[in-house]
Amino acid sequence: MRLSASVALLGLAVSPAWALCPYAEKMALEKKSSIPHPPAPREVSSSGKKGIFYMNRIAPGTSELYVANVDGTNERPLLSNPIYEYHAAFSPDGQWVTFTGERNGDGNSDIYRVRTNGSDLEELEATSSIEDGAVMSPNGKQVAYVSTANGYKANIWVMDLETGHKWNVTDTVSTAANASLPNGYFRPSWSPDGQWIAFSSDRNSGWYGHGDPVFMGVSGWEHTQELSIYVIRPNGSDFRRVVSKSGYCLGSPKWSPNGKRILYYEMTRENTWNSHRPESINTSNSTLVSVDFASGAGRRVEVAGSGVKIFPQYISDSTIAWFAKGSGKEGLHTSAGGFFNTSSSTIRSPAWSPDGKQVVYEKTSWDVVRPMDKKLYSWDEDWEYRFTDVFPQLSNTNKIAMTEKQLGNSSIVSLSANGTNEHLVYDDLKSDFLDASSVAMGTAGAFNPGWSPDGKWVTFGVGFWFQSRATGGGWLVRTTANGTYSEVLTESETTLESNSSVINSGFPSYSHDGKKIIFRVWGTNSTLGDRSQLGLRLLDLDTRKISVLTNEWDNLPSFSPDGERIVFTRKVSDYNYDVCTMRSDGSDLKVLTSSGANDAHAVWTWDGRIAYSSGMFGFQYECALYDQTFQPYGQVIVMDVDGSNKRVLTDSIWEDSMPMFVPNSKLRR
Ligand SMILES: *[C@@H]1O[C@H](CO)[C@@H](O)[C@H](O)[C@H]1NC(C)=O
Ligand SMILES: *[C@@H]1O[C@H](CO)[C@@H](O)[C@H](O)[C@H]1NC(C)=O
Ligand SMILES: *[C@@H]1O[C@H](CO)[C@@H](O)[C@H](O)[C@H]1NC(C)=O
Ligand SMILES: *[C@@H]1O[C@H](CO)[C@@H](O)[C@H](O)[C@H]1NC(C)=O
Ligand SMILES: *[C@@H]1O[C@H](CO)[C@@H](O)[C@H](O)[C@H]1NC(C)=O
Ligand SMILES: *[C@@H]1O[C@H](CO)[C@@H](O)[C@H](O)[C@H]1NC(C)=O
Ligand SMILES: *[C@@H]1O[C@H](CO)[C@@H](O)[C@H](O)[C@H]1NC(C)=O
Ligand SMILES: *[C@@H]1O[C@H](CO)[C@@H](O)[C@H](O)[C@H]1NC(C)=O
Ligand SMILES: *[C@@H]1O[C@H](CO)[C@@H](O)[C@H](O)[C@H]1NC(C)=O
Ligand SMILES: *[C@@H]1O[C@H](CO)[C@@H](O)[C@H](O)[C@H]1NC(C)=O
Ligand SMILES: *[C@@H]1O[C@H](CO)[C@@H](O)[C@H](O)[C@H]1NC(C)=O
Ligand SMILES: *[C@@H]1O[C@H](CO)[C@@H](O)[C@H](O)[C@H]1NC(C)=O
């Protein structure tokens, strides 16, 4: 294993003669001849925009609607010109399909309807907020949907299709909830008589993490969701909770044909995390349950057993259909024994026609990845939004380094600020530290590249991250910008032993004078509250001495461009991370965010402000129904260095993160 040789570098002074160093890793990197994602043409120079705003999005690469017979035969595309659509539903008269589309820009959810034969496509509502989950009323005159037009929070709205008049029903005096807690409303469903709308909500629940409780709370910061089932009249009166179960998520309510019972899926709160992670979906499960609408009592288990059963729906008085995700039984099932095996394609959010004979769903692909530089919807019109892979960082010499996580194997690449000259800098799979399956799962890789101020070096962590960092190693590495030489800067082991001194180091960043690297450490004893293996450290590149800057649960540190302050993320209580700054000597701590949700992963912008990801607006959709993500509802916010002037830069139902502004001046070079 290369590790032993690499560790031998520890303590050696850095010398300009590094190229002669016998331990130098010759990675034998080949410059990729065919770049899978050539730079797309830019409009910024002529459009009057200030430059490019890069960000990452965790969402399927493609999503197209199909209609099929209930047994899966006669499948055909719903739309003649699909762009990116999902979350479809039949109208109660079976004539229409309502759906969500991103036809006005990648990431901007709007609602539409179309006849079941694909004609008469009509935009129902299209704003820069999220519109999603549209369902037509039984009399065909109204549509209920989810919108984030009330301050970025998911609420239920109703629109009159004739007049276009629209109103929210869940942000009123009668539905008032504790604003510091989650307060989202999802998946509306009309009662057969049109008198009620049922939906799920996490209102007044908590900002819960996941995993076994350990020192300072849970082991996973990503939030789980505790939903209950509610009903309201379309005019906003008679708001009522129908059923809830402490520690459980009750989601996606649907009515029985006679309107007397409400059907939903029930899973533990913890399983809302497991249900959207590929490494744990097979061990997750849910139960399909119904209750009496009038009393909320008479709980009846409709479908039990293993597997994640979601999207339940009555397709007759006595038959229930649902979708099973993962666990080797993926597909459309009915309680009459029907099974349409969909494991050969990723089908999601099926909805059945009122007569139970047809089903509409989206087919999504994660293999088709957004190309680097794909244009996204621009919530800030001054900037052209574009897609980037993760951890992008701009050097003082106008080069970008990033981790190719979605586009590759979590290796480090560099490219010119204008998107040309992509170059492989470090191949994590060739490093021998990592196994390919953890990399494929997204929990290991070469993460968070940081440029030296002169643009000659790139430093990053190679190791196991997220939940796998609890037991897996992490090494600081730096390479020359051309990737011909790399060295390992800290010790670790593949497996962290309990009670051992071996730690996981990662998320490095150069000091503005290039002499030090700041990074975060983690050891198994951290779980027990031993702060000696926790916090931020400074590595002096001349002496190779490591000094302690903090002993808190801190991560993602980086020096401001002027070297005055360090921005970082701190776990301030069991379930809550905030964005903080301190002086470069560790003094003068300032906590810049205050939401009960996670505010994290802050980076400096080119003009010395701070951009970060926030969960403060809560979920925009039911947590268990997502795939592949970590914190599905992350939105990007930018603020001044003192935490003032916070401005929201995204409003999508997807996990948006990794912001990087590249102003025109840096593109033209
Ligand atoms: C689709 O259905 C509508 C309503 O039934 C009908 O008017 C229209 O001609 C159909 N279009 C096609 C292409 O079949
Ligand atoms: C939501 O509805 C309530 C009650 O009608 C109203 O007071 C509030 O202003 C509405 N919010 C928005 C954003 O329309
Ligand atoms: C709202 O929730 C916060 C956080 O749990 C709690 O501190 C506060 O007391 C609650 N406020 C009300 C009015 O219940
Ligand atoms: C809302 O609708 C219900 C049922 O139709 C009706 O009884 C009630 O008066 C309405 N409320 C308002 C404020 O219009
Ligand atoms: C479902 O998951 C829960 C929580 O993980 C577990 O306790 C239970 O045994 C599982 N049930 C089945 C049938 O797999
Ligand atoms: C989950 O189960 C499916 C089908 O049995 C299998 O192909 C897949 O590898 C499993 N995933 C994991 C992480 O074990
Ligand atoms: C579904 O189909 C796949 C391959 O097409 C097969 O491997 C799998 O066993 C099938 N699942 C079930 C539950 O029959
Ligand atoms: C990722 O690794 C696989 C297996 O080693 C290789 O075939 C593929 O080309 C790599 N992809 C990229 C983008 O480097
Ligand atoms: C992109 O920037 C590089 C310098 O990094 C320059 O050589 C190249 O000409 C630029 N290409 C375009 C298309 O602007
Ligand atoms: C790589 O970069 C180093 C440091 O800048 C330089 O000395 C070396 O010549 C470069 N190697 C190649 C092959 O360009
Ligand atoms: C250290 O390891 C021993 C033996 O495995 C174990 O009994 C003990 O609880 C551990 N100490 C801590 C603090 O985890
Ligand atoms: C980890 O904790 C155990 C038990 O408290 C202790 O014996 C051991 O020295 C600790 N390891 C380190 C590296 O601090």
TrEMBL record:
This protein's name: Uncharacterized protein
Extent of the signal sequence: 1-19
Originating organism: Penicillium salamii
One Pfam match: PD40
InterPro entries from the UniProt entry: 6-blade_b-propeller_TolB-like, WD40
Swiss-Prot/TrEMBL keywords: Signal
